Amino acid sequence: MTAQNGWVGRIAVFLHRWMLPLLVGCYALAAIAPAPGEWLKDARLLQSSVVGHGFQVTLPKLLLSFLLFNAGLHVRFERLGELVRRPQTMLAGLAANMAVPLGFIVVLVDTSAYWRNPNEFSMLLVGLTLVAAMPIAGSSTAWTRAADGDMTLSLGLVVASTLASPISTPIVLGAIGSITPSPLGDDLSRLAAHGTSRFLMVWVLVPSLLGMLCRLLLGSERIARDESLLKSLASMTLLVLCYANSASCLRQTFGSPDWDFLLITAAIVTSLCVATFTAGYVLGRLLGLDYGGRSALMFGLGMNNNGTGLVLAGTALGAEPMVLLPVIAYNLAQHLVAGCANAIHRRSAA
Protein backbone atom coordinates (compact mmCIF):
# COMPACT_ATOMS: atom_id res chain seq x y z
CA MET A 1 0.00 0.00 0.00
CA THR A 2 2.89 2.32 0.84
CA ALA A 3 4.55 1.60 -2.50
CA GLN A 4 1.30 2.31 -4.31
CA ASN A 5 0.91 5.60 -2.45
CA GLY A 6 4.51 6.41 -3.35
CA TRP A 7 3.86 5.88 -7.06
CA VAL A 8 0.67 7.90 -6.93
CA GLY A 9 2.47 10.67 -5.08
CA ARG A 10 5.27 10.77 -7.64
CA ILE A 11 2.75 10.91 -10.48
CA ALA A 12 0.93 13.78 -8.75
CA VAL A 13 4.19 15.70 -8.31
CA PHE A 14 5.16 15.06 -11.95
CA LEU A 15 1.79 16.25 -13.26
CA HIS A 16 1.88 19.37 -11.08
CA ARG A 17 5.45 20.27 -12.00
CA TRP A 18 5.03 19.69 -15.75
CA MET A 19 1.40 20.76 -16.12
CA LEU A 20 2.03 23.66 -18.49
CA PRO A 21 4.29 21.67 -20.90
CA LEU A 22 1.76 18.81 -20.79
CA LEU A 23 -1.04 21.26 -21.58
CA VAL A 24 0.93 22.62 -24.54
CA GLY A 25 1.56 19.02 -25.61
CA CYS A 26 -2.18 18.26 -25.53
CA TYR A 27 -2.89 21.25 -27.72
CA ALA A 28 -0.12 20.20 -30.12
CA LEU A 29 -1.59 16.69 -30.26
CA ALA A 30 -5.02 18.19 -30.97
CA ALA A 31 -3.55 20.05 -33.95
CA ILE A 32 -1.58 17.06 -35.28
CA ALA A 33 -4.01 14.21 -34.51
CA PRO A 34 -7.47 15.74 -33.98
CA ALA A 35 -9.62 12.73 -34.95
CA PRO A 36 -9.67 10.98 -31.53
CA GLY A 37 -10.34 14.30 -29.82
CA GLU A 38 -13.25 15.09 -32.12
CA TRP A 39 -14.69 11.65 -31.43
CA LEU A 40 -14.34 12.15 -27.67
CA LYS A 41 -15.99 15.57 -27.85
CA ASP A 42 -18.98 14.31 -29.84
CA ALA A 43 -19.45 11.00 -28.02
CA ARG A 44 -22.98 10.91 -26.54
CA LEU A 45 -23.39 8.55 -23.61
CA LEU A 46 -27.06 9.35 -23.01
CA GLN A 47 -29.71 11.34 -24.82
CA SER A 48 -33.27 11.89 -23.61
CA SER A 49 -35.91 14.53 -22.95
CA VAL A 50 -36.47 15.95 -19.46
CA VAL A 51 -39.49 18.21 -18.84
CA GLY A 52 -39.68 19.09 -22.52
CA HIS A 53 -35.96 19.88 -22.82
CA GLY A 54 -33.38 17.81 -24.67
CA PHE A 55 -30.83 16.33 -22.28
CA GLN A 56 -27.51 14.97 -23.52
CA VAL A 57 -24.75 13.39 -21.48
CA THR A 58 -21.45 13.68 -23.33
CA LEU A 59 -17.96 12.69 -22.26
CA PRO A 60 -16.72 16.32 -21.95
CA LYS A 61 -19.67 17.14 -19.66
CA LEU A 62 -18.88 14.14 -17.45
CA LEU A 63 -15.20 15.08 -17.32
CA LEU A 64 -16.11 18.64 -16.41
CA SER A 65 -18.49 17.50 -13.67
CA PHE A 66 -15.75 15.28 -12.22
CA LEU A 67 -13.34 18.25 -12.13
CA LEU A 68 -15.88 20.34 -10.23
CA PHE A 69 -16.75 17.43 -7.92
CA ASN A 70 -13.04 17.03 -7.19
CA ALA A 71 -12.77 20.76 -6.47
CA GLY A 72 -15.72 20.52 -4.08
CA LEU A 73 -13.93 17.77 -2.16
CA HIS A 74 -11.17 20.25 -1.30
CA VAL A 75 -13.39 23.02 0.12
CA ARG A 76 -12.46 23.56 3.77
CA PHE A 77 -15.56 24.92 5.48
CA GLU A 78 -13.68 25.91 8.61
CA ARG A 79 -11.73 28.42 6.53
CA LEU A 80 -14.76 29.74 4.65
CA GLY A 81 -16.44 30.56 7.95
CA GLU A 82 -13.85 33.30 8.49
CA LEU A 83 -15.07 35.13 5.37
CA VAL A 84 -18.61 35.41 6.72
CA ARG A 85 -17.27 37.83 9.31
CA ARG A 86 -15.44 39.95 6.70
CA PRO A 87 -17.16 39.57 3.32
CA GLN A 88 -16.27 43.00 1.90
CA THR A 89 -12.97 41.91 0.33
CA MET A 90 -14.46 38.85 -1.33
CA LEU A 91 -17.43 40.81 -2.69
CA ALA A 92 -15.10 43.47 -4.08
CA GLY A 93 -13.03 40.75 -5.74
CA LEU A 94 -16.10 39.11 -7.32
CA ALA A 95 -17.34 42.47 -8.63
CA ALA A 96 -13.93 43.27 -10.14
CA ASN A 97 -13.73 39.78 -11.63
CA MET A 98 -16.78 40.66 -13.75
CA ALA A 99 -16.16 44.37 -14.31
CA VAL A 100 -12.52 44.33 -15.52
CA PRO A 101 -12.94 41.82 -18.41
CA LEU A 102 -16.25 43.43 -19.39
CA GLY A 103 -14.58 46.85 -19.54
CA PHE A 104 -11.73 45.42 -21.63
CA ILE A 105 -14.18 43.86 -24.09
CA VAL A 106 -16.25 47.06 -24.38
CA VAL A 107 -13.07 48.97 -25.25
CA LEU A 108 -12.22 46.29 -27.80
CA VAL A 109 -15.65 46.70 -29.43
CA ASP A 110 -14.76 50.34 -30.13
CA THR A 111 -11.93 49.10 -32.39
CA SER A 112 -14.27 47.07 -34.62
CA ALA A 113 -14.05 49.61 -37.46
CA TYR A 114 -10.32 48.86 -37.85
CA TRP A 115 -10.79 45.10 -38.43
CA ARG A 116 -10.67 44.06 -42.07
CA ASN A 117 -12.46 40.77 -41.32
CA PRO A 118 -15.68 41.26 -39.27
CA ASN A 119 -16.12 37.48 -38.86
CA GLU A 120 -12.70 37.12 -37.21
CA PHE A 121 -13.51 40.05 -34.93
CA SER A 122 -16.80 38.42 -33.89
CA MET A 123 -15.11 35.09 -33.12
CA LEU A 124 -12.44 36.82 -31.02
CA LEU A 125 -15.11 38.79 -29.17
CA VAL A 126 -17.19 35.68 -28.42
CA GLY A 127 -14.14 33.76 -27.22
CA LEU A 128 -13.09 36.56 -24.87
CA THR A 129 -16.65 36.79 -23.59
CA LEU A 130 -16.62 33.09 -22.73
CA VAL A 131 -13.41 33.66 -20.76
CA ALA A 132 -14.86 36.68 -18.95
CA ALA A 133 -18.11 34.87 -18.10
CA MET A 134 -16.53 31.84 -16.43
CA PRO A 135 -16.12 31.44 -12.66
CA ILE A 136 -12.69 31.74 -11.04
CA ALA A 137 -10.44 28.75 -11.67
CA GLY A 138 -9.64 26.30 -8.89
CA SER A 139 -6.01 26.42 -10.05
CA SER A 140 -5.83 29.96 -8.66
CA THR A 141 -5.71 28.42 -5.17
CA ALA A 142 -2.63 26.38 -6.13
CA TRP A 143 -0.83 29.53 -7.31
CA THR A 144 -1.95 31.39 -4.17
CA ARG A 145 -0.59 28.58 -2.00
CA ALA A 146 2.71 28.63 -3.92
CA ALA A 147 2.94 32.39 -3.32
CA ASP A 148 2.19 32.02 0.42
CA GLY A 149 -1.03 33.96 -0.11
CA ASP A 150 -4.29 34.13 1.83
CA MET A 151 -5.84 30.70 1.19
CA THR A 152 -9.10 31.57 2.95
CA LEU A 153 -9.76 34.48 0.58
CA SER A 154 -8.58 32.49 -2.44
CA LEU A 155 -10.86 29.55 -1.68
CA GLY A 156 -13.76 31.88 -0.92
CA LEU A 157 -13.42 33.57 -4.32
CA VAL A 158 -13.47 30.23 -6.13
CA VAL A 159 -16.47 28.86 -4.22
CA ALA A 160 -18.50 32.07 -4.37
CA SER A 161 -17.92 32.63 -8.10
CA THR A 162 -18.85 29.00 -8.82
CA LEU A 163 -22.05 29.23 -6.77
CA ALA A 164 -22.97 32.53 -8.45
CA SER A 165 -22.13 31.37 -12.00
CA PRO A 166 -25.69 30.29 -13.00
CA ILE A 167 -26.67 33.96 -12.52
CA SER A 168 -23.47 35.89 -13.31
CA THR A 169 -22.48 34.02 -16.49
CA PRO A 170 -25.75 34.67 -18.39
CA ILE A 171 -25.51 38.35 -17.40
CA VAL A 172 -22.04 38.65 -18.96
CA LEU A 173 -23.00 36.66 -22.07
CA GLY A 174 -26.16 38.72 -22.57
CA ALA A 175 -24.36 42.05 -22.08
CA ILE A 176 -21.68 41.29 -24.66
CA GLY A 177 -24.12 39.48 -26.96
CA SER A 178 -26.10 42.70 -27.28
CA ILE A 179 -23.07 44.54 -28.74
CA THR A 180 -21.50 41.68 -30.74
CA PRO A 181 -22.21 41.59 -34.50
CA SER A 182 -24.58 38.87 -35.75
CA PRO A 183 -24.78 35.92 -36.01
CA LEU A 184 -22.45 35.15 -33.11
CA GLY A 185 -23.91 37.96 -31.02
CA ASP A 186 -27.33 36.39 -31.48
CA ASP A 187 -25.88 33.03 -30.39
CA LEU A 188 -24.50 34.60 -27.21
CA SER A 189 -27.84 36.27 -26.45
CA ARG A 190 -29.73 33.00 -26.97
CA LEU A 191 -27.17 31.17 -24.86
CA ALA A 192 -27.61 33.70 -22.05
CA ALA A 193 -31.40 33.52 -22.24
CA HIS A 194 -31.86 29.76 -22.43
CA GLY A 195 -29.07 27.23 -22.12
CA THR A 196 -26.30 28.56 -19.92
CA SER A 197 -27.96 28.64 -16.50
CA ARG A 198 -29.22 25.08 -16.89
CA PHE A 199 -25.81 23.91 -18.14
CA LEU A 200 -24.01 25.50 -15.18
CA MET A 201 -26.55 24.23 -12.66
CA VAL A 202 -26.28 20.62 -13.88
CA TRP A 203 -22.62 20.31 -14.80
CA VAL A 204 -20.90 22.88 -12.54
CA LEU A 205 -22.95 23.79 -9.48
CA VAL A 206 -24.44 20.37 -8.62
CA PRO A 207 -21.10 18.47 -8.90
CA SER A 208 -19.40 21.15 -6.79
CA LEU A 209 -22.05 20.88 -4.07
CA LEU A 210 -21.90 17.07 -4.18
CA GLY A 211 -18.14 17.24 -3.68
CA MET A 212 -18.60 19.52 -0.66
CA LEU A 213 -21.23 17.16 0.75
CA CYS A 214 -18.93 14.16 0.31
CA ARG A 215 -16.19 15.99 2.19
CA LEU A 216 -18.58 16.55 5.09
CA LEU A 217 -19.64 12.90 5.08
CA LEU A 218 -16.19 11.35 4.61
CA GLY A 219 -14.25 13.80 6.73
CA SER A 220 -11.15 15.87 6.00
CA GLU A 221 -8.74 13.13 7.11
CA ARG A 222 -10.07 10.63 4.56
CA ILE A 223 -9.82 13.21 1.76
CA ALA A 224 -6.27 14.06 2.86
CA ARG A 225 -5.24 10.38 2.64
CA ASP A 226 -6.35 10.27 -1.00
CA GLU A 227 -5.01 13.74 -1.86
CA SER A 228 -2.35 12.54 -4.32
CA LEU A 229 -4.77 10.26 -6.17
CA LEU A 230 -7.41 12.99 -6.43
CA LYS A 231 -4.87 15.54 -7.70
CA SER A 232 -3.55 13.08 -10.30
CA LEU A 233 -7.04 12.23 -11.56
CA ALA A 234 -7.97 15.93 -11.76
CA SER A 235 -4.83 16.79 -13.75
CA MET A 236 -5.31 13.92 -16.20
CA THR A 237 -9.01 14.76 -16.59
CA LEU A 238 -8.16 18.38 -17.41
CA LEU A 239 -5.62 17.31 -20.03
CA VAL A 240 -8.09 14.97 -21.75
CA LEU A 241 -10.78 17.66 -21.62
CA CYS A 242 -8.50 20.26 -23.20
CA TYR A 243 -7.44 17.83 -25.94
CA ALA A 244 -10.99 16.80 -26.80
CA ASN A 245 -12.47 20.31 -26.86
CA SER A 246 -9.63 21.94 -28.79
CA ALA A 247 -9.27 19.32 -31.53
CA SER A 248 -11.72 20.84 -34.06
CA CYS A 249 -10.50 24.39 -33.45
CA LEU A 250 -6.77 23.65 -33.70
CA ARG A 251 -7.19 21.36 -36.73
CA GLN A 252 -8.88 24.25 -38.51
CA THR A 253 -6.41 26.83 -37.17
CA PHE A 254 -3.23 25.10 -38.24
CA GLY A 255 -4.69 23.37 -41.30
CA SER A 256 -4.73 26.71 -43.08
CA PRO A 257 -3.19 29.18 -40.63
CA ASP A 258 -3.99 32.89 -40.72
CA TRP A 259 -0.88 34.15 -38.96
CA ASP A 260 -2.12 37.73 -38.68
CA PHE A 261 -5.23 36.59 -36.82
CA LEU A 262 -3.23 34.22 -34.61
CA LEU A 263 -0.75 36.94 -33.61
CA ILE A 264 -3.50 39.48 -32.95
CA THR A 265 -5.44 36.93 -30.88
CA ALA A 266 -2.34 36.09 -28.84
CA ALA A 267 -1.61 39.79 -28.23
CA ILE A 268 -5.17 40.66 -27.18
CA VAL A 269 -5.59 37.59 -24.99
CA THR A 270 -2.27 38.26 -23.25
CA SER A 271 -3.27 41.91 -22.74
CA LEU A 272 -6.56 40.86 -21.11
CA CYS A 273 -4.71 38.40 -18.89
CA VAL A 274 -2.15 41.01 -17.77
CA ALA A 275 -4.98 43.49 -17.16
CA THR A 276 -6.89 41.10 -14.86
CA PHE A 277 -3.79 40.15 -12.86
CA THR A 278 -2.86 43.82 -12.51
CA ALA A 279 -6.41 44.68 -11.44
CA GLY A 280 -6.25 42.07 -8.68
CA TYR A 281 -2.99 43.50 -7.35
CA VAL A 282 -4.21 47.12 -7.55
CA LEU A 283 -7.51 46.23 -5.85
CA GLY A 284 -5.57 44.58 -3.04
CA ARG A 285 -3.52 47.76 -2.57
CA LEU A 286 -6.64 49.96 -2.62
CA LEU A 287 -8.28 47.76 0.03
CA GLY A 288 -5.16 47.95 2.19
CA LEU A 289 -4.55 44.18 2.14
CA ASP A 290 -1.29 42.57 3.14
CA TYR A 291 0.91 40.51 0.81
CA GLY A 292 -1.23 37.37 1.24
CA GLY A 293 -4.49 39.13 0.45
CA ARG A 294 -3.04 40.86 -2.62
CA SER A 295 -1.77 37.50 -3.86
CA ALA A 296 -5.19 35.86 -3.50
CA LEU A 297 -6.93 38.69 -5.39
CA MET A 298 -4.27 38.77 -8.09
CA PHE A 299 -4.52 35.07 -8.93
CA GLY A 300 -8.29 35.01 -8.40
CA LEU A 301 -9.01 37.82 -10.85
CA GLY A 302 -6.43 36.61 -13.35
CA MET A 303 -7.42 32.93 -13.63
CA ASN A 304 -10.75 31.71 -15.00
CA ASN A 305 -12.25 28.22 -15.27
CA ASN A 306 -11.63 27.77 -18.99
CA GLY A 307 -12.43 24.06 -18.86
CA THR A 308 -16.04 25.07 -18.30
CA GLY A 309 -15.79 27.61 -21.12
CA LEU A 310 -14.44 25.01 -23.53
CA VAL A 311 -17.22 22.54 -22.77
CA LEU A 312 -19.93 25.21 -22.93
CA ALA A 313 -18.65 26.56 -26.24
CA GLY A 314 -18.19 23.10 -27.69
CA THR A 315 -21.74 22.18 -26.69
CA ALA A 316 -23.56 25.35 -27.71
CA LEU A 317 -21.35 26.80 -30.48
CA GLY A 318 -20.02 23.65 -32.10
CA ALA A 319 -20.70 25.02 -35.57
CA GLU A 320 -18.08 27.75 -34.93
CA PRO A 321 -15.05 25.93 -33.46
CA MET A 322 -12.78 28.95 -34.00
CA VAL A 323 -14.44 30.78 -31.09
CA LEU A 324 -12.51 28.36 -28.89
CA LEU A 325 -9.14 29.79 -29.98
CA PRO A 326 -9.16 32.75 -27.53
CA VAL A 327 -10.26 30.40 -24.72
CA ILE A 328 -7.40 28.02 -25.50
CA ALA A 329 -4.94 30.91 -25.72
CA TYR A 330 -6.11 32.34 -22.38
CA ASN A 331 -5.80 28.93 -20.75
CA LEU A 332 -2.10 28.93 -21.61
CA ALA A 333 -1.53 32.64 -21.03
CA GLN A 334 -2.97 32.67 -17.51
CA HIS A 335 -0.41 30.13 -16.28
CA LEU A 336 2.49 31.90 -17.98
CA VAL A 337 1.39 35.28 -16.60
CA ALA A 338 0.79 33.70 -13.18
CA GLY A 339 4.39 32.52 -13.07
CA CYS A 340 5.70 35.97 -14.00
CA ALA A 341 3.31 37.72 -11.60
CA ASN A 342 4.38 35.44 -8.76
CA ALA A 343 8.05 36.24 -9.33
CA ILE A 344 7.46 40.01 -9.60
CA HIS A 345 5.13 40.07 -6.59
CA ARG A 346 7.65 38.21 -4.43
CA ARG A 347 10.45 40.59 -5.40
CA SER A 348 8.29 43.64 -4.65
CA ALA A 349 7.49 42.25 -1.18
CA ALA A 350 11.09 41.35 -0.37
Give, in order, the helices and strands.
HHHEEHHHHHHHHHHHHH
Tell me the β content.
under 5%
CATH architecture: Up-down Bundle
Tally of structural domains:
1
Give the overall pLDDT as a whole number. Answer: 86
Structure description:
With 350 residues, the chain is mostly helical. The chain has one domain (20-349): Na+/H+ antiporter like fold (Up-down Bundle). The protein has 16 helices and two strands. It has helices at residues 2-17, 19-32, 35-42, 59-73, 77-84, 88-109, 118-133, 139-146, 151-177, 184-218, 220-225, 227-255, 259-286, 291-302, 306-316, 324-349; strands spanning 44-50, 53-58. A two-stranded antiparallel sheet has the order 1-2. Helix 1 (2-17) runs parallel beside helix 12 and helix 8 (139-146) crosses helix 9 (151-177). The mean pLDDT is 86.
Outline the secondary-structure elements:
Elements: H1 2-17, H2 19-32, H3 35-42, E1 44-50, E2 53-58, H4 59-73, H5 77-84, H6 88-109, H7 118-133, H8 139-146, H9 151-177, H10 184-218, H11 220-225, H12 227-255, H13 259-286, H14 291-302, H15 306-316, H16 324-349
Antiparallel strand pairs: 1-2
Helix pairs in contact: 1-12, 2-12, 2-16, 3-12, 4-10, 4-12, 5-9, 6-7, 6-9, 6-13, 6-14, 7-9, 7-16, 8-9, 8-14, 9-10, 9-14, 12-15, 13-14, 13-16, 14-16, 15-16
What would the keywords be for this entry?
mainly alpha; 16 helices; 2 strands; Na+/H+ antiporter like fold; 350 residues; two-stranded antiparallel ribbon
Concise structural overview:
With 350 residues, the protein is mostly helical.
